Amino acid sequence: MAAHYDHGHTPAAWTGVIISFVGFCAAGVFIVAADPVPFWISMGVVLLGPLVGGIMKSMGMGRTSQVTVPAAVTEREKAAAGA
Fold first, then answer.
1. What digits encode the pLDDT tens for the residues 42-80?
2. Are 43 and 23 within 8 A, CB to CB?
3. 46-68: string of b/e by CB count within 10 Å (b at 16+)?
4. Rounded distance, CA 47 to CA 74, Å?
5. Mapping DSSP to helix (H, G, I), strand (E, B) and coil, where does residue 38 land?
6. Rounded distance, CA 60 to CA 15, Å?
C-alpha cells in the first residue's frame, strides 16, 4: 500500500529537511555550550531549510503530480455507493 503514496521523496524535500536538521543539531550544541549568538544563528539555519525547499520546489524539483488514491479507498467508496 505504501507504493501508492509519494511521501515527499523529492530533492526539494530532502534538501530542506537536511538543512533544518543540521541547524537543529548545531543549535543543540550551542545551547549546551551556553553560547547564545551561535545558537540564534543556528536557529536561523533551521528556518532557512523550508525556504530553500520552497524555492527548489518552485524550480521544479519538488512533487509535480497529485498523490494517487490507494485502491482500498476506492473499493470502500464503491461499496458505500452500492456499486
1. 999 999 999 999 999 888 888 776 655 555 556 666 677
2. yes
3. beebeeebeebbeeebbeeeeee
4. 38
5. helix
6. 14
